Amino acid sequence: MAPSPLLTPFTLADDLKLKNRMVLSPMTRGRTGDMQRPDKMTAQYYVQRASAGLIITEGTLISTVANGWVGAPEIYSKGATLAWKEVTDAVHAAGGLIFCQLWHCGRASHSSFHAKEGKAVAPSAIAINEPTIHAPIGKVPHEVPAPMTVDQIKETVADFERAAANAKAAGFDGVEIHGANGYLIDSFLQTKTNKRTDEYGGESLENRFRFLKEVTEAVLKVWPASRVGVRLSPNGVYNDQGSPDFREAFPWFVEQLDKYKLAYIHFIIGLGFGFHKLGEPMVMADFRKSTSSALMANCGYTKESGEKEITDGNSDLISYGRPWITNPDLPARFETGAKLANDPPVGVWYSPGPKGYVDYPNADGTIV
Ligand SMILES: Cc1cc2nc3c(=O)[nH]c(=O)nc-3n(C[C@H](O)[C@H](O)[C@H](O)COP(=O)(O)O)c2cc1C
């Protein structure tokens, strides 16, 4: 019998050879404490999942003002860079490949995350229209973010570059720019959150894309294009996101990204994390038309729907999130047909400590 297409190798931009097409989707696990540094338990978690063709880390903060998640790790300090090196060394020793997801939370933050800098920053002064955010001081109402000055935009681009350089020093195989889920980059892309009247905003697609363009070009100063991916969420409502022109805007953004010949473009395309319902949801085939880049599809995929997406030619790679949490040996289970463990309870997604993190066994009962 032919092997599952998910279990066949794939090469990113003629460079990095992945042993299979099953990617560990970036997932914040909230376990790096006040120090915001990965530790031995983080390394164990990723090593347990090193049979993925590619691991993408949890969102990793590029600066202090980027922080908007309790217990999320950073990669702006020397200490965190050294701590990540222990994780990448362990993953490589286990035969895995690992990209670092570079994250700026933008308006999905609160001043109590960064007392020195004060308010969260965003393209425009529009608060997330949801009841509360989980901040270091507890559950609090969302604040109206401070609209970024052009100087702040330039500094943030430089922060992405420094974080990308730190990721290189930390031994990562590449980086993923987090342009999804209503965080800073996505909020520049979308009219819902970008009401600027300068060259970074307004209705103009070119202006809305400018920030991601500058971030991508800054990251490409330190990494070859074959080691840089970008994540987008055209259908997503997460963090109060969604813009009426999404069907026109996202293919245009992707056409621009295509020019860089990146490692991949990663889409949260499935609707399992909520859909803004502003039109017919986009599908992977919509993007295949406008790009020659490798594509990675995510959200709600099963073995069968992932195989179909690849066989139909709509995607090259499938990233899985929740299934990896409870099935650290996911490719082996797909290969042997071993029963999958249920998705994890939401209560363990972000709870500190090993429970619900490094205590899920392989199909044979062993814990690595
Ligand atoms: C616990 C948890 C944390 C997540 N953290 C991130 C993150 O840091 N960065 C990101 O881009 N997406 C994040 N996501 C979204 C996942 O990468 C993925 O898009 C989502 O789980 C849907 O895929 P799935 O249906 O295979 O789980 C997170 C999802 C979960 C469940």
TrEMBL record:
Query: Keywords assigned by UniProt?
Result: Oxidoreductase
Q: Is this entry keyworded Lipid biosynthesis?
A: no
Tell me where in this chain the NADH:flavin oxidoreductase/NADH oxidase N-terminal domain is found: 6-338
Superkingdom to which the source organism belongs: Eukaryota
Q: Does the keyword Nuclease apply?
A: no
Q: Which family does it belong to?
A: Belongs to the NADH:flavin oxidoreductase/NADH oxidase family.
Report what the protein is called: NADH:flavin oxidoreductase/NADH oxidase N-terminal domain-containing protein
Task: Tell me the classification of the organism that encodes this protein.
Answer: Eukaryota, Rhodophyta, Bangiophyceae, Bangiales, Bangiaceae
